[in-house]
Amino acid sequence: MIGHVLFFAFATVLIAAAVGVITSRNPVHSAIYLVLAFFTSAGLWLLLEAEFLAIVLVLVYVGAVMVLFLFVVMMLDINLAKLREGFTAYVPLGLGVALLIVIQVAHVVWFRGQDTALMDTPEPRPEGYSNTRELGSVLYTEHVYAFELAAVILLVAIVAAITLTMRKRPGLKVQDIARQVAVRREDRVRIVKMDAEKD
Question: In the 3-class helix/strand/coil scheme, how is 79-108 assigned residue by residue?
Fold first, then answer.
């Protein structure tokens, strides 16, 4: 009974955080809502006895990816007024995609509900079971190429984010090493001779 209460509590917070991600007008607030969604998802993983996935979700996504995403959002200096100008043009496409996702989720819930009860509790794992070992054996044998491909895509995304932040902006001060090294003594110091002044 307590498991069901915790599940519905976590699910409610997760849905509220997801809605906050897509409805927040400030990109930084959206990123913070996404951090809350990740933490809540980690709680759901713990309820399913998937401790490794819960820890990875917190350490990798919240501790690394989300921090990087937050810094990129803050460094890009996004013009929010310009982004909101053409928002209404994408409303039909967004509604269509949302309707398609709702239909897909409804189909999954309906097909799964044919065989199992709605409130089925998963069977507890035996004493010596390790989901980390099971996940690693599947990830690094059957899905190793997909895992490596995901790592390459993340690397390209990081390089692209750094490239976007290093673009030339008006008023940006950069250091020119070649110009500093080529400077002459005469350009740095100017000696001015003045007559002594008497009181």
Answer: CHHHHHHCCHHHHHHHHHHHHHHHHHHHHH
